[in-house]
Structure formats: C-alpha cells, structure tokens
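Entry 12.
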Amino acid sequence: MVALLTVSVVSMFAAAFLQVSGALTRSLAGDVENTRAFYLAEGGLSEAYQGLRIGKSGQIGSAASPARAGQGLVWVDATELADGRVRLESTGMCGSGRSTLALVVEPVEISLGFFSDEDLVIDDVLLVDGYDSEEASYDDTVLEYEQSSAGDYSAKIAALEADKAALVTERDYAVMKRDYAVDAQLDMEIDSDEYLAPQNPDLNYINSYTADLDGKIAAIDAAIAQYVEQGSQSIEGLSEAALTALQEEASAGTVDHTFDGAVVGSNGSITLAGSGTDAPKLFGDAIPGVGAEVFTNGDAFATGETAARTEAIELPAVEIPTVDTLAAVVHDSAIPMLIPPSSIGYAGITVAADAELIVRGPCTLVVGTLELEPGADIYLDTTDGDVQLYVTAGMNLAPGSTLNTSSEQPEEISIQVGEIAAPVGDPAVKLESTAQFHGTIYAPNTAVSVGSAFEIFGGMAAQSLEFAPGVKLHFDSAGYEGSPLPKLVSWKIVEIPAVAKHRGDPFRELGFEPEDCKVLADAHDLAGVELSVSYLDLSGTVRGYEGPEVDFDWRLVAEVIRTERDRGDQQSDLQSDQPGDAQDPPAAPAGVRSTVSDTLDAGYSKDAMTALLIDLSPLSPEEMDIAEPILGPAHYRELERAQ
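Predicted 3D structure (tokens):
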C-alpha cells in the first residue's frame, strides 16, 4: 500500500510537471510566433512606406488576397485621410501568431527652388547654384569645391599644359630650322634625300631631337588625359559642363560658387541666352512646364536635367493672417525702429535714408506697403524665433538700401506677398537693395524683380520673375530630396481584424496554399489601375510610362518625378480581390536592395530576425535613421506592454 501510494503521488507530480511543462512550451512557442507575426507586420509597413516614397499607393494585397512572406501571410491596407495623410495598417500572420500595426504618414512637399508661374527669360549674366545648409554653409561648400581633388587635378593639368606649350614651341622651332636647311640645299640642286639620310649628322640630330620632343609631348597628353579622368571621378555626379567649369576656375584660382544643386522652374518655357562673360550659368536643373522646353543660346548653359514637368504646378494663394493693424508710419529717426516679438500689422512702413528698422522674432508682421529709401536699412533678427513678413500692397527696396538677416537658415525667414494689382511692366515687388538674404520669398500672384545687388540664399516662387544683370541665386536644398521620404506622424499597435483572429495556421484559416500568394514585393495594389509616371531610371535618365500599372516594373525606378493614377470606376477597397497566380519575383537589378522574402525561418532568434529584417529592408541605412520609428526599440516595449 505504501508503494502504491508513493507511485500514485509521484505519478501525480509527474503529470502536473508535464502539464506545466507543456503549457510553458506552448506559451514560448506562441510568444515566438507572435513575435514573428509582429516582424512580418513591420515588414509590410516598411514595404508600403517605401512604396509610397516611389509613388505607389501603399496598399499591399488584402485580407482576400494576402502576400506571402517567409512562412506567414501579410497585407497592408492604405487609407487616404481627409488632410492628405495616409494611414497604413499592416497585419501579419505566422503560425498561431497575429499582429496588426498602424502607421500614419504625411507626404513631403518638394521645393520649387526658384520658380516662375509664367515663362522665364534670363538673357544676361546670372549665376544659379545650390548647396545644403544642413551639411555646410555656402562659403564652406564653395571652399570644398575649390579644394576638391578635381581642383587639384585642374592645377596639375594647367601646369602640364604650360610645359606642353613650351615643348611645342621648341619642337616647332627645330622643325623650322630643319626645313630651312633642306630648302637651302634644294636650291643648290643637291638631292634632298642625302640631307635627310641617317648619315647626315646635322639633320639626323634635328630629326632625333624633334622625335624626342614629340615623345615628351605625347607623354604630357597621356598624363593630362589621366588627370582629366581622375578629376572627373573626384566629385561624383557633376555633369561634364560643370566639371569643365570647375577645372577651368580651379586652375585659375577663381572658384566662387558651387557646381550643382540649383533648381529653376516654370509653368512655361525657360530661356537662357548670352555670350561670353554675359552668359547665364545654371549649375543644376532647369524644369520647364508641361510641353515646354529649355532654350539655351550662345554660351549659356544648364548642367542638370531639362526635362519638362508632366503636371502644372499650382501656387496656392497667400493666406494673410488676421492681426491688429496700426496706421502707416514713416521712420526717419537716427534711433532704430524696433518691432518686438509679436503679431502686428501696419498700413505701411517707410524707412527713410540713414534710418533702420529692426524686426525681432518670433514675429508675424503684416504690412500694406514696405519701402526702403536709398541709405535705409532693415534687419531681420531670428535669434529667438522666426520672422514671417506678409506684404499686401507693395514692396520697394530701393538701390542703396540694405537688408540684413541674423541667420543663415532659410526656414527661419519668409516673405509672402498677397495678390497686388500693378501696371504692366512695373513689378509690385522690387528687391533692389544690397542684401545676402537667407530665406524664402513667395508671391504666387505678383510680379517680382530682383536687382543685381540682392543675393538670395534659399528659394523663391512668383507669378513672374525678372532678374537684373549679375544676380546670384543660391538654392538651399536643406531638407529637400528629389523623391523625399514621407514624414512619419504616428505608429501604434492596433486591434487585430476579425478575419485574422483565429489562431490556426494562417494558410489553412484563410484557404490559401503558399504558392497561391504573391511575395510581399509583388503584392502592391496594381489591378485595374492606369498609371502615368515620369521618373529617373537606375542610370539617372529621365523616362516616362503610361499604361496599366501591373505592367510597369517599379524596380527600374531610382527616383520618381511625378505619378498619377486613374482607377476609373473601381473603388480603392481591395477586399474583393482574388488570390494572384503563383509567381516568383524576378531577380533585382544590380545595386537594388531586396525586400522581405522567403528567407525567414522558424529557427531564427529574435535578434537574428531583427538583423535579417533590417538587412532586407528596402530602406537604405541613412533612410533607416530617418525611419527609426518603423524598426525602433520603442515598438518592442509597446508590444510587451500590450501583451
């Protein structure tokens, strides 16, 4: 009896242990599958996020037609919100694991650079270049070009050219002496062959000497060719025209601008015309309107893209803020007039000669007319905050006046001009003062003229632009990318949809075989969508496509310029989609990152899975830094709290 009792007790303990052990094992397995489903959902968000960047809708598959990723299923529903934002909701299913994540993104507006709504004609000396104030100041960027290896190679090339010129002169003189000697002997009716024969010591020496000089000249030409090639590779991305200009100016020690980065645009045509030193130089892109062209005459040039835009740019009207408005003032005192941090308005401000106006931020200043007389000065101080200046009736900064800014960051100062009626040929906004203006100027319904002493670091858009000879425009591309990443607004874990709540095998629960589902990268919403897109391919060439989106290969796109979709009568809800045919993704072109695919394995640890997903992400390492909320540790902490 004691033995039976002992065996029974031990059996009970063993059964309890096995039950606890089994429950723990199932719990651990469930945690692993939940984590894998979480990673699949994040992989779907990453794929949809990248799709938005290159112009896709963000929709990937649907609950009725999910995408296959590893040993699980994933789909992403994209919903366009009323404010233009896009909500991405990604559901991942793996084994018994389920996870649904939501991400809200906001499209990033692309800067217009220096833009004219009407035809833009530049027919006198003008310099347009670009830089990025977040990377370095303009002066430092110029210095970098001047001290670049391309500049060094240019100096070497200039020295070799000088040596070559001396050798050519010496060689030509020797040849002239030889020809003179031969001609003299011919006059004496002696066979010239005798004097060109090797046994003739004088002519033999001259021939050997000239041959030696020719060899040295050939060696210099080879060295120059090598330096040109090395110099061409020293600044990646510079066009041939920009590189030639850089080499010429670096060898002469006259580099005073950058050699790329400019953006000039129009809804009409763009004309660059001029000869010699009076020719406009545009180191960057010139983008005309739909169906329009860039015309270059004489020695004028643009080093970047000149392809026409495929959609007209609409410049929204300026919204003038409502502020308390004071009477017009004429400031002619030797004591500066100070407008402190505030939101305030004046019917007009005139600053007389030898007087100064100081606007200190943060300030929103609304004026009817703003006039600086010759000798007047205005100082925009953004030390403590931004300055926003609104003009409603006219602006005249006369020659001889001065405009100064405290900051070199263009986002801190803006001048916005409302619609102003003015006589034809008499711009309502005249910027003729002496200035190095760091900021943006926006006058969508007003003509603007810029004087030769008004130098702009930033950007400008207007109804029409008129430039005096010698104007310098420097486009600050801080925060600007040709195809920018959408801005991340929020991220969170959300409730799993009803269709995914059953905890069985996802393929069996949804009624799919793995081969019935497209892989994640090929499951973007393409069915029934007519696509019109202009883009830069992997070689940097501007191309266009119009037709069914399902027939377009997005892997060939390096940068999207514009996209437009037409669904006809089809709704954006894809719940009626049917499973796609089985197909394996074609190999990606060289240099293109793969997306999450069948490389996921049940044996991966959490750390290994994280490293794998990051490695397979379509985002570059730099973009991963920007998109940290997608694959950041905060998500895992939130997941743990939710569990």
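Annotation: The chain has four domains: 2-109+494-525+574-642, 149-234, 318-479, 530-573. Residues 188-199, 232-236, 567-604, 615-639 have pLDDT under 50 and may be disordered.
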